[in-house]
Write a structure and sequence with these properties.
The structure holds two protein chains of two kinds. Chain A is α/β, with parallel strands linked by helices. Chain A folds into two domains: about 120 residues, 3-Layer(aba) Sandwich (Rossmann fold); about 100 residues, Arc Repressor Mutant, subunit A. Chain A contains eight helices and eleven strands. In chain A, the strands form three sheets. A five-stranded parallel beta sheet of chain A has the order 2-1-3-4-5, with helices on both faces. In chain A, helix 2 packs parallel to helix 3 and helix 6 crosses helix 7. The radius of gyration of chain A is 19 Å and the shape is elongated. The relative contact order of chain A is 0.10. In chain B, the strands form three sheets. A five-stranded antiparallel beta sheet of chain B has the order 2-1-5-4-3. Chain B has a five-stranded mixed beta sheet with strand order 7-9-10-12-11, with helices on one face. In chain B, strands 6-8 form a two-stranded antiparallel ribbon. Classes of the chains: A alpha/beta, B alpha+beta. Chains A and B meet through helix 8 of A and helix 4, helix 5 and helix 6 of B.
Amino acid sequence: MKILVVEDDAETADYVARGLTEAGHTVDRAADGREGLFLASDGTYDVLVVDRMLPKLDGLGLVRALRAAGVRTPALFLTARAGVGDRVEGLEAGADDYLGKPFAFAELLARLNALARRPPMSAEVTVLRVADLEMDLLKRSVTRAGQRIELQPREFRLLEYLMRRTGQVVTRTMLLEAVWDFHFDPKTSVVETHISRLRAKLDREGAPPLIHTMRGAGYCLRAPD
Amino acid sequence: MPPTDPAGDRPRWWGSTAFRITLLHLVLTLLGTLALSGVAWWATTGFALRQLAQEVERDSAVLVQAVRLGGPASVALSIEARMAADRSGTQYFLLAAPDGRRLAGNLATTPQAPGWERLQVSGAGVDTALLALGTALPGGGFLVVGRDLAPVRQLEGFLLSAAGWVGGTALLLGLGGGLLIGRGVTRRASAMAAALARVEAGEIGHRLPVRHGGDEFDRLARRINTTLDRVQGLMQALRQVTDDIAHDLRTPLSRLRQRLESALRTAEGDAAWRATTEGAIHDAEQMLDVFAALLRIAQAESGARRAAFVPFDLSAVVEAVTEVHAPSAEARRQTLQVNVPPGLSILGDRDLVTQMLSNILDNAVKHGRSGGRIDVQLTARPAGGVVLTVADDGPGIPAEAREAVLRRFHRLDAARATPGTGLGLALVKAVADLHGMALTLGEAGPGLRVTLEMPAVTA
């Protein structure tokens, strides 16, 4: 994946760039907003990591300018300004995700992966399939190997989120945001509890598990090899 | 001694606004007096002159008629008689024969032509101006009737001096009054400036003097005083927060330091170092949690979020929050009784309200009795608005401590053993205030009952 990191703090930029490179991505760096806009304008990047407060052109302005120029590259704001309202402002400017500093690197990586591989918005998808697991979005029903599985509404939302990101690591924070609409950490084991309940409902005797726990990162739903 | 004015502009009465206003007022008054005097002048002296002219005309007409009836001789007698009767000596006559000889009268000069004329009379201790009317008599001869203008001149003089006195008095009174008012205003403004200077110099509790009159100065002073109260309150809150932060972060920081130091001394092997690093990350995360909570409280308290208020489904939020805390309640074998009718909305900041409710639930689960019961109830009031109550059956909060627990970092002694930042209820209070919700901590007999009365949606 080709990633552009626009960040003026050299240490943070090093940290992010090194981590992403270790994870096998190609990383370009820009130290100010104008340079970032220049590099991002040709649209060859898979995803952008943008600081909110940048010299010359701030992050909001950068993303707005890109969107105005028709560049649709997914962008993630990585910023110390993570107050209530800042996130909304960032998303309204045209960013696709928002992550407050300080952050865990695994969180950033998971979110970038999710952004870059986000399927194009298509309303036509009505059935999600992973191995023998099937979710009908219209009938709101889930079956595994043809057998119907009863899910609570929240469990359904959780499973849908995981199935739409098959093979990707999904963090606890991402789940809290998407499934419960919590933009802070309530310090409870709600995600773990729901995942284990979901596992109990999905897993069958003798069949390989579908939901995997990625230690220190999150969860991943994928078909058995 | 009042502190010196940093701007260096000592108050000068002649530079004061009040004085300038008085001066302007004075000039306008003087102009008014002048205009009035002008009109009075024109009316009075004009009237006196016209009166004089009428007298002259009447006399003249009578005498001419007499000439016509009785001839010049009888008129001469009549003139002599009039002159004898005129004690004030303001009447002047001349009856001239056709050859120019004076037949009667006290005027020497003969006017050249009939009609109005101003004559100057001098000699024999008299030096005055006359208003005279000359008339050619039937059958030759000439009659002049005149009146002394001195009374009119006198009137003019009187008017002038009266105007002078009035003007002068107005000027003096105006100036004096201006000085007095100016000094009064300047004194009060200086008192306010001095009081503000003391506040500026660090006496933050000092307030502006307020008299009981309630004039504009008092209103201004009162307004400034309430502003100062607010500023002082904010400063105290800020100082409280910084003190609290310093105090509360010192503990985890020292713990972090101890952990690292002891690892440096004794740790051997990757596993030990790994454990130390993980512990350090955990400590750092705790401190970051404190900061995040403080920032949220500050945001809620600033009131800036009010602009972003939107109506949202409170029922859904309450359900999500109870669901999120259900595992923790389960771990403590608590029964979570939730009674939330669907579709109740309020106007507000969804994120902050979610966090607030999460903190209330977290509090109930942590401090409720293990194996006990937690009641969450949302009800719509018939009069509009909704009420949320969360009750646990734990030890509760003693009545005298209920206000204190809403402050930052305040933790009851009994709660010190449980993990937490001591900011949870402070955030609840800040968010409730931001939304205009009434927050009550009450007795659930036993246990704590948190009641939030939320205003109706008025979007």
